[in-house]
Amino acid sequence: MTEGKEMSPRRIYVLTLAIAVAAASAVCLYHGLRTGKDSVLGLTAQAEKYFGVESAELVLAQKRGDYMAALLRNADGSPFMALYQRDTLFRDRWQAVGGTSSFAPGTMDSWNYGDPKGNAVLIFSGLELPTEAKWYAFTNSGTEYLRPVSSDRVLDLFVIGGADDISGVPVLLDENRQELK
After folding, report:
1. Cα–Cα distance, 52 to 178 (Å, whole number)
2. CA–CA distance from 133 to each of 61, 77, 104, 146 (Å)?
3. Dihedrals φ, ψ of 64, to 5°?
4. Are 166 and 83 in contact (CB under 8 A)?
5. Among residues 129, 104, 121, which one has the least CA distance to residue 167?
6. In this structure, are residues 156 and 123 in contact, taking their beta carbons and an 8 Å threshold?
7. Which run of H or of E encompasses 136?
8. Model confidence at 116, in pLDDT bands (50, 70, 90)?
9. CB distance 154 to 126 below 8 Å
10. What is the DSSP track for 83-102?
């Protein structure tokens, strides 16, 4: 009868190293598949997957810290907005985490989020806005914000630190800062 061989320390080291490399590769592959690169195609693909749409077009994008917002248009021309969060492992990659699936052209929409760090993340978007729209305003935590509208599209992303209030509804205004009717 033959006795079983014991593993040498070198074999144990090589086996442990192979397992560690396989685990690291699995983590990298997982992150690579669930995030998108900071590119038009990567961001559009993330939004299409998140909202279940096809043939989307990226119109505008804006970054603030670990967040990015994108204004997109789906195949039938309806605008929608996606919020992305920076990946913690690959800092140049983004993952879609929310947004609005659609809103009416010619209007503005908002998507507001309270993050785990206590920040208010406010996104305001609009597409095919009326030519009379020159400003928009919103209120958050008792402070009124006034922002210019310089074309028929708007995308603004605010990250307000330490804000308990995540509200903010955009109101379109004319050149005299009067509400559009």
Report:
1. 38
2. 21, 21, 16, 13
3. -145, 110
4. no
5. 121
6. yes
7. strand 135-140
8. confident
9. yes
10. EEEE-SSSTTEEEEEEEES-
How many other C-beta atoms lie within 10 A of the C-beta of residue 26? 10
Q: Which residue has the tokens 């992303």?
A: 157
Give the count of beta carbons closer than 10 Å to the beta carbon of residue 54: 8
Question: Which position has the token pair 């760090």?
Answer: 117
∠ Cα 165 38 40 (to 5°): 100
Phi-psi region of 152 (alpha: psi -120 to 50; beta: other; left: phi over 0): alpha
CA-CA-CA-CA torsion sign (6, 9, 10, 12): positive
What is the maximum alpha-carbon separation in the chain?
99
Convert the pLDDT of each residue in 6-51 to its tens digit. Answer: 778 888 877 786 676 666 655 555 544 444 455 778 889 989 999 9
And the tokens for 173? 């205004």
Give CA 88 to chain center in angstroms.
14
